[in-house]
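Follow-up to my post from last week.
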Amino acid sequence: MTAAAAHTPSAYPLDRIRADFPALAQQVRGKPLVYLDNAASTQKPRQVIDTLADFYRHDFANIHRSVHTLGERATARYEAARETVRRFLNARRAEEIVFVRGTTEAINLVAQSWGRANLKEGDEILITAMEHHSNIVPWQLVCRQTGARLRVAPIDTHGELILEELAKRIGPRTRLVSVVHMSNALGTLNPVKEIVALAHARGIPVLLDGAQAVPHLPVDVQALDCDFYAFSGHKLYGPTGIGALYARHELLEAMPPWQGGGEMIRTVTFEETTYNDPPFKFEAGTPAIAEAVGLAAAIDYLEGIGWEAIAAHEHDLLEYATARAGEVPGLRLIGTAREKGAILSFTVDRVHPHDLGTFLDHYGIAVRAGHHCTMPVMDFFQVPATVRASFGIYNTRQEVDLLIDALKEIIEVFG
Amino acid sequence: MLDDLRDLYQEVVFDHNRNPRNFRKMEDADRTVEGHNPLCGDRITLYLKLDDGRIADVSFQGQGCAISTASASLMTEIVKGKTIEEAEHLFEAFHQIVTGRDDDLKLEELGKLAVLAGVRQYPSRIKCATLPWHSLEAALKGEERPVSTE
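User reply:
Got it. Predicted complex:
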């Protein structure tokens, strides 16, 4: 076992994993790169990069309705990717998986298709105070279009959702509950099973924003019993521009199309158009074909490591980082929920997050400094911004040490 | 400290960040402008008092990073007593230097402000340095609506 793996529980193949990610083996400003911006986007393993390159080299053509060999090959790969995503989320059938650009597009799809068809003046959409802007703004848009209202369940000072307050806000006019599975700014893991049960007891469907959750834990949409689940490929070690929306089949069948074009139709005349079945009804135009194939490669890669091993490794990193953060004078953790994913969001007395971000970059350490597209969360904690170190499958305890040591040095310089 | 950061984080910057000059509310200001950088959450309130075409007094409050705080502090020092035309000329010169548009840096013209020239190497941080100046420009033009860098 080498130094990098020395502190890792059991036989987690950390060195082999790191070797799979070419981008990690570089120097930034003369220092080895320490990539701790995984909640924004993850680096890509060669298995994904090679899949993309090989697909473009050998199998690429436009999909569906092709009579030629490459078209058939590409279609088979694209539909096999859909099956991989189905297996990944444990959906009942592949038709319940709609390929989209990412989580943001998935939520907009639900807001514009399901929302416009089902919301009337005075109806309510219930979200939480820890949502990413992408689970706020699409609802504000559809509220403006339909006269519906957005309601918000509060969080406490640990960054935990106050479940009783959410329950209180589920009323006769609630039409949808839309909640983040894991908070990108705080790391909080929400009790999504309980939330679904609460809403379903009143016959209300639930959307889960899984952008942050899917890279860290296994998701089973049947066990969660959610109605919609959205995630992005690029945070899951896959390509940008591809993600998926899971939706229960009967919901998808009843939902109207939200974008028109090729692929989503059955017949078109100038007088009338009939639509294709789900999921194709929601995939107008040529989709991100290679990216879907690349996403499947990322999922295969992660399943090869194993979700239990990933969860244990990242939990160890979070525990270690949280403990060591206590040594840094003036450091205040933002987000101290009991159930947390591997995200460390913090401020430091007298040093602005952006100065910290610029200084850390000079140590080769990539973190995010800002509001993390969660301005209401920043307002709640009364901070303009935080520094966020977010961990992934390839991070090490040594990298946590480098972060902590760098923070101590920087604080000294600022005095 | 890391050597390559010294170009940007000079001792003058640390000094003005720790002890910003003219950091106070001005009760009898002629003009007050709110500046905001939504990207990083920096906020500045700029207070201005004019007397016969001259900046009789200028002060600021707010919260921001070291670059924006030092930039605001240095700005208030240098523009106090200047005519509106002189202040606008300084803004123009400062803007060209921090955005890297002016290749033959007229640093001597800027005096102490020149310490911020290093920000041109950090594209994501340029707006930190220019936010106070955009706020000043708005105040000089008598614009009362908030200034945003976005």
